Amino acid sequence: MEMQTPEEEVISIMKKEGIDLTATLPCDRIKNLLPLVSENFREIKLTREENGIGICAGAYMAGGKPMMLIQSTGLGNMINALESLNIVCGIPLPILSSWRGVYKEGIEAQIPLGAHLPGILEGAGIKYTIIDSPEKIGLLEDVIRDAYENLRPHVALVSPKTWEGSTCCTWEALETPEVPKKEKVCKFRLTQKVLEPLMVRNDAISAVAAEMDGEVTVTNIGVPCKELYAARDRDLNFYMFGSMGLVSSIGLGLALCTDRQVAVFDGDGSILMNPNALLEIGREAPANLTIIALDNGAYGSTGSQETCALRYIDLEILANACGIPNTHKVNTEEELAYLYKDSLSARQTSFLHVILKPGNTKAQNIPFSPEEITKRFMEALRNES
User: What is the CATH number of the domain that holds 154?
Assistant: First the structure.
C-alpha cells in the first residue's frame, strides 16, 4: 500500500472526522494542501480571516461541521472574534494554521507574531496544539475532536517542517502558462434619488418583525438586538453579543447550510467595519439570504457617532459592486415590509438598504446569556427543519 503524503493524511483525517465545509486563506507553506481541500470539500475562499469565523459559526449552528485553514498571521486578526463569538457562545471551530515565523522563515516580518503565538493563544485562553513534524499530523484528529466535543476553538499550529520531504505536488500540477482572462459583469440596480430618512431603526426592525414567519434571523450587536427582542422575540432569532462586523458572515454560513430563508439585520457601522463580508456573499450568492442594511449614518449603540455612510459612501452601490444583484433602497415602513416579503420570494441574494434617522429606543436587556441564545437557536433550527 502506497504511503500517504502529509497533505493526503490531513485530508483523510478531515474526512474521518466528518468535516463538510472549509473556510480558507492561502499560505505558501500549504499550497500543496489547499488544492486537495478544494477537491474534497465544499470550500469558502475568504478575503479576511474573521469572516471565516462568522461563516463557520453560522454553518455549525445550521448543522454543519466546518473547519478553517489559514496562515498563522491571520490569528492576530481573529482573537477578539474567537473570544466574543466562539468562546462566549460555545461554538466549536478547529483551525489548521500554517505556522510562520518559527522555522526557516525568510520573511522577517513574520517572526514577531509567529514567535509569540503560543503565548498569545495561551494568554487568550484559546486551546492550541503544535504539529512540527509529519509524524505528529495525527494530532489534527485530536484537535478536531476536542473542538467539537468541548464546544470551543482549537488551533493546530503546523510548522513548515511538517511538509518537508513531501512528494505532494498538486499546486505545481495546477500551474498553467497562461494567465486566466479577467471577467466581471456588473449588473447595477440602483435607486437614482436620495431618500429622506423618515424612520428610526426601531421602526424598521418592527416593520420587518411583523412580517416574519419561519425565517432564521441574525441581528447585529447592541441596541438592534434589544429592539428585535422587544418587537418580536423568537427562538429562531440569533442575537449577537460581540464580534462586531460578522453578522452578515454568520448569515452567510447559515444560508449555505440550510434551505430556510435567512434574514440578517446589519448596520452601516458594522458593514463598513467589514465590507469584505459582502464580497464573499456576492460570490457565494445563496438564494435564501436577505440582508437588511439599517443605515442611520451613525454608530447607534455607542453614542451615535457619525459613520462614513452618512456623507461619503452608498451601501447599495457597495453591495452591487460586491456582486449582490437584487438591491433596493427604502425609507418607509410600508415599502420595507413589501420589499422584505418580495426579497424572500426572489430566490436570489437580496440587499435592502434602509435609510434611517439616528436614534435608539430604551429597550430592555436580553435576559439570556450568549450560550443560552445559541442553544435555543440551534434547537429551534433542528426542531423546525
Answer: 3.40.50.970
Mark whether 161 and 268 lie in a shared domain.
Answer: no
Residue 110: how many CB atoms within 10 A of its CB?
Answer: 17
Helices (H), 99-154: 111-123, 139-150
Domain identity same for 231 and 147: no
Q: Please, where are the H alpha helices in 177-274?
A: 201-209, 223-232, 247-257, 268-273
Query: 154 and 12 in one domain?
Result: yes
- Residues 168, 216, single domain; the answer is no
Residue-wise pLDDT tens for the chain (385 aa)? 578 999 999 999 999 999 999 999 999 999 999 999 999 999 999 999 999 999 999 999 999 999 999 999 999 999 999 999 999 999 999 999 999 999 999 999 999 999 999 999 999 999 999 999 999 999 999 999 999 999 999 999 999 999 998 988 888 777 655 666 666 666 666 666 778 989 999 999 999 999 999 999 999 998 999 999 999 999 999 999 988 899 999 999 999 999 999 999 999 888 988 989 999 999 999 999 999 999 988 776 666 777 776 778 889 999 999 999 899 999 999 999 999 999 999 889 999 999 999 888 888 899 999 999 999 999 999 986 5
User: In Å, how far from its chain's centre is CA 1?
Assistant: 40
Q: Of the candidates 114, 118, 94, which has an alpha carbon nearest to the alpha carbon of residue 29?
A: 114
Beta strand pairing call for 153-158 and 127-131: parallel
Which of 255, 264, 270, 260 lies closest to 217 in space, CA to CA?
A: 264
Asked if 152 and 203 sit in the same domain, the reply is no
Contact of 228 with 204, CB cutoff 8 Å: no
Domain assignment of residue 134, given as a range: 6-174
Task: Give the 3-state secondary structure of residue 169.
Answer: coil
Verify that 54 and 138 share a domain, yes or no.
Answer: yes
Clarify whether residues 142 and 231 are in a common domain.
Answer: no
Q: How many independent structural domains does the chain possess?
A: 2
Whether the CB-CB separation of 75 and 97 falls below 8 Å is answered with yes
Q: Is 180 exposed, middle or buried (0-12, 13-18, 19+ CB in 10 A)?
A: exposed
Asked whether residue 134 falls in the same domain as residue 232, the answer is no
* pTM summary value: 0.94
Residue whose C-alpha is closest to residue 250's, from 217, 228, 276, 223: 217
307 secondary structure, DSSP code:
P
Tell me if 252 is assigned to some domain.
yes
